[in-house]
Amino acid sequence: MVLVKESLTPRSSSWMASRCPKHQPIIAFFVIFLAVISASAAVSTDKRIAARVQRLNKPSNKTIQSPDGDLIDCVPWHLQPAFDHPKLRGQNPMRPPERPSGEDTSSKPAVEMQTWRNTGEDCPEGTVPIRRTTEQDVLRASSLRIFGKKPAVTTRRNSAAGNHEHAVGFANGEFFGAKASLSVWNPSVSVSAEFSLSQIWLISGSFARDLNTIEAGWMVSPRLYGDTHPRFFTYWTSDSYERTGCYNLLCSGFVQISSKVAVGASISPTSVYGRRQFDITLLVWKDPKFGSWWLELGSGELVGYWPSCLFSHLAGGAKMVQFGGEIVNTRPSGSHTSTQMGSGHFAAEGFGRAAYFRNVEVVDWENSLVPLSGIRVLADHPTCYDVGTGVNRVLGIYVYYGGPGRNTMCP
């Protein structure tokens, strides 16, 4: 055995000596080539991220430092991102539409519900407050393509995207708007790729191909905003969340007119379990004359509008309205996420404990606000998050919803 070992060793060394020098330059070349390609790709990505941020952050007349860390830029109205859209370039602001009848805002105080307003500073007339986008905001997204968009539902090709789970009150029919007051909470979000939101949906079209939606409410989304503050948000899509639409002003489309409300800014205060309940009132309705969909917050503050040219089916009326909560569960197999919906408590716990929508109304074809009739409920995972509805003298038509996510009944 010693002889065999001695006879093999020189032969092996000789083979290495004769072969390695011929391959080492080739291997080294490929290592260098891959390094150059990788570095070029990184530089290209950095440039594209910087370009996206530059497109979104328009020149401003003033910048306000919010206590929560946001920078609020006061951007001249005509420079806002909406007018990057080819169908909106060069347009003048639309005149405020006729409000739906049946609404009384005369006795309601102004709503000061955004943290940046605590500075006591306002944006000058003729400008709109826009939360500044940073490169870090973009880097938190899994790709530039989906930055600012709602995470896709899990598919065979995209198993990490997560399942969207809902607990909502809904109705089918012909609707030209919706209104409700929704309580604001600060639910715990388990991982940064998940979110928890509460919103009003106006929906038309096919869920499979060309769904049109308008959405507004509040949300907690660490990936989108880099923190866990509840934030006022908007969303729209005209093709089932594929290519069109986005959150807030992160793409062209939604036209802001308010100088007092920053879409995407944090909300303060929030509701406290068993104690004070804080809610915001939202109204979305279709301009009977020009067809755009307008958004109002609180006591008559017009935030802005979605032009009708953005949509196919919603160029007419909505075929469904929904009021409730949504979360993303990035663990569709195995244990359920512990991300909370609403207050983190179930609907049966009622006022002061469960999250709610109160005074739920819709806008009919005569541009009148009427109580929503025929409301039904749907919870995708009722042991994790549930929903209930009813009517009483104080809350009008209401929807309670929410839950803790993972628990003994939702393992």
Terminus-to-terminus distance: 61 Å
CATH top level label of the domain at 60-101 and 109-332 and 359-367: Mainly Beta
Which architecture name of the domain at 60-101 and 109-332 and 359-367 does CATH use?
Sandwich
Largest sheet: 9 strands, antiparallel
Average pLDDT, all residues:
88
Question: Low-confidence stretches at least 5 residues in length (pLDDT < 50)?
Answer: 1-21, 154-161
- The DSSP helix count reads 3
Structural classification: alpha+beta
Number of strands: 18
Q: Specify the helix fraction band.
A: 10-25%
CATH topology label of the domain at 60-101 and 109-332 and 359-367: Jelly Rolls
Could you say which overall geometry the principal axes of the C-alpha atoms support? globular
In terms of DSSP E residues, the strand content is 25-35%
**Series of secondary-structure elements, N-terminal to C-terminal:** HEEEHEEEEHEEEEEEEEEEE
> Which radius of gyration do the C-alpha atoms yield?
26 Å
